[in-house]
């Protein structure tokens, strides 16, 4: 059951982007599983991809195409990851791009392919090819909501975010969708994200912006610690708003764009955690007082990945000793545990490395009943801080992943 409000906002169309959705029967019948984004000529595109060494054929091909040409189309299928499929998988990805390019009158290198689903099974490329004419016929600027459903796998609900803002009399739009519910620890989860704005931004600035906001959003979520073979996130700037292209990461226009894009990315990332497979709790792990950002993240992920902590939260059991154990094994060098304090929301659990004198089991139990909980840790060794978002492990997580291929 998703945690919190996952409802879609008004999904403002982005001038310069049209989206088509079709039923290709990649894995299941009677569901829309093929999505095509058409990008206006002159749009700039930035992307980040999984660092998994076993990255899927579409990831390899998308990287190659992005380096060779300005993308005009994004092609996404669900139900099959086309990962671990060797040379035949690459051929399937190439054929998919070639078919879409032929149908739309662009070069194959102007198509970026994306796949998500079961790993180790060859993409049924003939089904993708057969579905492309219907997807192209359905191209429409208002299809963001339908696309959010079309890219889902084990997600229970579509995920989207959209905002508009005005600078110097021009109104700009930022709209995006994401998918993912399991195999989530993006490291650039099975995670895909697509965000677009109608602002004109140079590719260099757009890529830098994507890396920055991605690091603070999709790269700060985890459900099970598994980095997918297919993770990818794309940020597009169509230039249809009419502004002079943003060429540097400064000025009022860039600052406004950065603020809104960061907010949209964070919302899309947190929606993935809120809809984590079997999730019943949304957990924020905030680590402060670190000597560096890296060690804050090491501690936060040690806590967020601990099955013992995640199952305790599912049971609403304030077994905070498990948090201390995770902190202790996080690998932070020369960690002085006598300086560590830990809170559940505003309840102080651990003070100077031991049980807080003010703490009672009833206080901890009351916090653990909540659907949204913050674990705050002060390492007492510096001024750095960072935050990771995760969820609990329930019975349903095991059921979903045990039955995933059925």
List the helices and strands and how they pair.
Blueprint: E1 17-22, E2 34-39, E3 44-49, H1 57-68, E4 73-80, H2 86-104, E5 111-118, H3 125-137, H4 144-150, E6 159-167, E7 170-179, E8 192-197, H5 203-215, E9 232-237, H6 251-274, E10 282-290, H7 293-305, H8 307-314, H9 321-328, E11 341-344, E12 347-351, E13 354-355, H10 361-368, E14 372-378, E15 384-391, H11 395-402
Helix pairs in contact: 1-2, 2-3, 7-9
- Average per-residue pLDDT, rounded, comes to 93
Helix content range: 25-40%
CATH homologous superfamily of the largest domain - what is it? L-amino peptidase D-ALA esterase/amidase
User: What's the overall geometry?
Assistant: globular
Count of DSSP helices? 11
Number of strands: 15
Q: Which regions are unreliable across 5 or more consecutive residues at pLDDT < 50?
A: none
Q: Can you write the helix and strand succession as a string?
A: EEEHEHEHHEEEHEHEHHHEEEHEEH
CATH fold name of the largest domain: L-amino peptidase D-ALA esterase/amidase
CATH architecture of the largest domain, by name, is: 4-Layer Sandwich
Q: Widest sheet: strand order?
A: 13-12-11-14-10-15
Task: Explain what this protein looks like in three dimensions.
The protein is of the alpha+beta class and 406 residues long. It has two domains: 17-274, L-amino peptidase D-ALA esterase/amidase; 282-402, ArgJ beta chain, C-terminal domain (Ubiquitin-like (UB roll)), CATH 3.10.20.340. It contains eleven helices and 15 strands. A six-stranded mixed beta sheet has the order 13-12-11-14-10-15. A five-stranded mixed beta sheet has the order 3-9-8-7-6, sandwiched between helices. Strands 1-2-4-5 form a four-stranded mixed beta sheet, sandwiched between helices. Helix 5 (203-215) links the parallel strand 8 and strand 9 (232-237). Helix 7 crosses helix 9. It is globular and about 70 Å long.
